Amino acid sequence: MIWNETKECMSRDELANLQSARLRKMVSRVYHNVEYYRKKMQQIGLEPGDIKDIEDINKLPYTTKQDLRDNYPFGLFAVPRSEIVRIHASSGTTGKATVVGYTRKDIETWQECVARILVMGGLDHDDIVQISYGYGLFTGGLGAHYGVENLGATVVPMSTGNTKKQITMMEDFGVTAICCTPSYLMYLTEALEENGMVDKIKLKKAFLGAEPWTENMRREIESRLHISAHDIYGLSEVMGPGVAGDCKFHTGLHIAEDHFYPEIIDPETLEPVKEGETGELVFTTLTKEALPLFRYRTKDLTSITYEKCECGRTSARISRFKGRSDDMLIIRGVNVFPSQVEAALLEVAETTPNYMLVVDRVNNLDTLDVLVEVEERFFSDDIGELERLSKKIAHTLQQALGIQPKVKLVEPKSIERSEGKAKRVIDKRVLD
Amino acid sequence: MITQQVSVFIENKEGRFLRVAELLKDHNINIISFSIAETEEFGMLRMVVSDPAKTVKVLKEGEYSARLTDVITVKLPNEEGTLFGLLKVIADSGNNIRYMYTSLGDDGPIVIKTTNQEDVVAALKKAGYEV
Ligand SMILES: [Zn+2]
C-alpha cells in the first residue's frame, strides 16, 4: 500500500518541476518575510529571482542550529504569530532551546508525512498504535499521534514511562504497532520477556526513531518480538518525525522529497558529494509556512540514492545514519567517523568492546591509535591468540577506514569514562 | 600434578605488576611462582598462587581480565643435570613445551605448560618425578 501514490511515485522529472516551483515560491516568501534570511541573501548579492529552479538551490546560504538559537524564540518565523497553531522546542544540552512553530497547514503536511511512513511500514486504519514517545515540547509524541489519527488507525497515547502499564495496555487493547525510541523498545522487550508476555501480545510493527540505531538492533528487536521494525526519521527544525522512513525492503529511508529537499555535502568543504558517498545531510523545506529553512545542516551523516525502490516509490533514499559530522576526524586527509570504528569492531567482536581513538601527529604525519579494552571474553592465556586478535582488528579497521591504525590492547576499564560514558576520541594534534 | 594457574592481562606500563602484587597481598594470597611474558604492547602475567579461585575473583573485582589455565607443577631438586632429565622426558613423550617457569622459594615446583598435559604428567610420573 502507498498512502499518496501521486507524490510518492511521481517521476523524477515531474518531481524536479514540483520542487522547482515550490522552491521559487518559498524563497520569495522567505525573502519578504524573514529579515534574517533577507540580510543573509543581500550580503551575498542574491535575489529571489536568481532562484529559478531546484538546481539553483546551491546558491542559497546554509542554516545551522546556531542560526535558530540566535533568533530565539520566533525570529525566523515567516508568518505572523497569530497564524502559528503550535510550538515545539528541543532542549539543547548547550545553550538555549531551539524553538519551532507550525501553521495549520504545516500540521497537515506533518500528519501526511507520518501517515506515508506508517503505510510504508504496512499499517492501515485497522491498526491500534501505541505512541510511547514523549508528549510535550518534544515533537515525537504529538507528531506520531497526528500521523496515526490521519491514517485513521486507533491511537493509544501512552507517552513515555510506566512500563508495566504500557504492557497492560498493549495486551488489553490488542495493540498492533508501537512508535517509540529503539532503546525504549529494547527495554520494553526485556520486560515483556521477563513477564512471559511476548506471545500474549498482538504487536506486529514498530516505528522507531529519535535516536541512532543499528541494523543489528533492528534484527534483534525483530526476532525477539516477532515483528517488523521500521525507521522513522525527522528532526524538529525541519518538521519532526516523518521526514523519512523505510519500507519493508529496508533499503534506506524514503524522504518526503516533495516537502523536504535533501542534499549531501562534505562537512568540511561544504561541497556536494557524489551520489552514494557519505556526507552531511542538508534539508531545504519546500512547503513549510511557519519556519521555512534554507539548507539546514542536520549534522547527520548518511549517503543518498535516487534509484527507484522495489516498493515502487521513486523518492530518494538515505542510508542508515553513519554518525554525526560533529564527531568527524580528518586523519591524513581521510574523513574518519568514530561510528565507523565502532562498526568495524562490532564485526570482529560481535558486540562493541570499549575503545578509544587517539589521534596524534608525529613528524608531520597523523597517527591513529585505537585502544581496545581486553575484556574477559577476548582474553586467553595464549599470547599468540591476543596478537591475532589485535591484527584482525587492525586489518578490519584499515578496510573500513582506508588508513592504517595502530591497535593497542589495553586493560579492562582503563579507558577513561565521564559520567559512565566512555570518551571515544582524544585528538592530541596541535594544528597551527 | 596439574595445578590451576592464574593468567592476567597487563599493559606494558609502569607499576602494573606492582598493583597486582599489592592487590594479592591485601587479600593474603601468596604467589608461589610467576612469570611475565611480554610483547611490544602488552604483557601476560602467569602465576601459581595459594588460592587460584579467590585470586581470579579478587582480580576481576579489581577490573583485570584474568582466567585459570591448567599447568603441570613438578618438584625438581637443584642438582646438576636434573633440568636436562626433565626436558628429555617431555621431549621423549612427543610433546612440546609452550612455556615454563620456576618458583620463588628454594624447593618450589617448576611450572610447565605443554601441548598435551595429561600425556606429559603420565610420562613424568612414569620416570619417577614428583608431579
Ligand atoms: Zn521502498
Summarize the structure.
The complex is a heterodimer of chains A (about 425) and B (about 130). Chain A is an alpha/beta fold and about 425 residues long.
Mean pLDDT of chain A: 91
Number of domains of chain B: 2
Multimerization state: heterodimer
Instruction: Please state how the strands of the largest beta sheet of chain B are arranged side by side.
Output: 2-3-1-4-6-5
Fraction of residues in β-strands of chain B = 25-35%
List low-pLDDT spans of chain A. Answer: none
Please bin the fraction of helical residues of chain B.
25-40%
Q: How would you describe this structure to a colleague?
A:
- Chain A has a domain of 103 residues: 2-Layer Sandwich (GMP Synthetase, Chain A, domain 3), CATH 3.30.300.30.
- Chain A is built from 11 helices and 23 strands.
- In chain A, the strands form 6 sheets. In chain A, strands 4-3-5-6-7-8-9-14-13 form a 9-stranded mixed β-sheet, with helices on both faces. Chain A has a 4-stranded antiparallel β-sheet with strand order 10-11-12-15. A 4-stranded mixed β-sheet of chain A has the order 20-19-18-23.
- In chain A, a hairpin with a 6-residue loop joins strand 8 and strand 9.
- Chain B folds into 2 domains: 67 residues, VC0802-like; 55 residues, Alpha-Beta Plaits (2-Layer Sandwich).
- In chain B, 30% of the residues are buried.
- The model of chain B has no long low-confidence stretch (mean pLDDT 90).
- Chains A and B meet through helix 11 and strand 20 of A and strand 1, strand 3 and strand 4 of B.
- Bound molecules: zinc ion (ZN).
- Zinc ion binds next to loops of chain A.
- Zinc ion (ZN) binds next to loops of chain A.
